[in-house]
Amino acid sequence: MITITTEDDSLAEHEMQAIRGNIRNTTNGATITLSTTSFTINNTLGSKLKKWEDEGFPDVPGAHHAKAIAAELRARKTHTLVRDIEHAAINPLVQSAKSAAKNALGQPPPWPVREPQECFMVDGMKLAIRKIKTHKTDQREATRWNMEEALDRLQDTSESRATAKEVWRGMKSPHIIKGARGFMWLAMHDGYMTGDRWLKTNMSEEYKERGMCKNCIQVESMNHILFHCEEIGQEMIWKLLTSVWSEAGLPKMSANWGSVLAPGIASPESGERPLTGHERRLWTILTTECDRVIEEQGEAHTAVEVTNRWYAAMNGRLALDRRTRRGAGNVAKIWLPILNDRDRLPEDWVLGGGGLVGIRKASG
Ligand SMILES: [Zn+2]
Fold it and tell me: Near ion ligand 1, which residues have CB within 5 Å?
């Protein structure tokens, strides 16, 4: 516990500056108790804080510091207690604060005064409005970050850099079914209530805990869930995809944030030939189905369960495409490379009775 003691109303502004510096220099996680004899400070940072924030701190001494302190406190993980101390003369805390203040008189502050993070600042607005604004700013940042990450990953296997416009346009592919398109769009906007969102907003500790992947002790983002989490078998799902893919003799592809969120413009690994149009469509279909398997997976499963779910999902999609002839009658050309016994299939297998048509099992 750290106790900051302040005194005397006339010095409220200087004291608030001192409080600011001290809060900044206190580990985020330690509980701060602000003990003060100052009526102004007790009021400003305690009972009246919300009211004054809403009203824009009219005529409040040291309003600039008060706003900054409120922002600093809001950015902390723990609660801060603002306490009124009476009987100042006999309180040892007050005595030691007084002598420390005397010694520091005329000295520059021992710490730089930095501006707090914008998202924790409140300027004469209702908290609800602040939340929405913060949310919007965070969302724009998240989208930009996610898009840059996708473009970086795409560039890993390409000599030119794709554009955001191409990525967004790619999501409209007719080979991406509606639910999967929504998932990709939301993943790019970080629209799911994953990690960063929970941690940044003013939510209770219980909710904040949900922002962390308990298995990996990482901030839970869609990127983490799809490609980095050790819990839900994502690694296995992508391995099944890339095995089936390369065993079909198709140019080697790797599944990542770029090749999965922009499957239609992803390039094979270096040294491989470019994908044909039908191969691009197949990659788009399969990756978006993998997304769904991972998304719906939830808790941990055994390797056998993950494998079975994967084949069931891919064969389910194949059956859907056969039924609906999605993709202007190109179903046969798109799917053929990865099918079981592809050389022995009847000519009309798409519409005909080929009930046993399915994806070839990966050897590994
Ligand atoms: Zn994880």
Answer: 213, 215-216, 229, 231
CA dihedral 31, 35, 39, 41 (to 10 degrees): -40
| E runs forming strands in 21-132 | 32-36, 80-84
Residue-wise pLDDT tens digits, 55-102? 777 667 677 777 777 777 766 666 677 777 765 556 776 677 666 666
Comparing 174 with 214, the larger pLDDT belongs to 174
Query: Where are the domains positioned within the chain?
Result: 2-124, 129-344
Please name the residues in contact with 121: beta carbons below 8 A apart, sequence gap of 6 or more: 67, 68, 71
Fold of 2-124: Nucleotidyltransferase; domain 5 (3.30.420)
| Type of residue found at 184 | M
Which of these ranges, 84-93, 128-137, 161-170, 251-260, has the smallest mean pLDDT?
Answer: 128-137
**What confidence tens digit (pLDDT) does each residue in 226-250 have?**
998 887 689 999 999 999 999 999 9
220 CA to middle of ligand 1, Å? 7
Distance CA 46, CA 53 (A): 12
Q: Classify residue 12 as exposed, middle or buried by CB count within 10 Å of its CB (0-12, 13-18, 19+).
A: buried
Residue 353 C-alpha to ligand 1 middle, in angstroms? Answer: 43
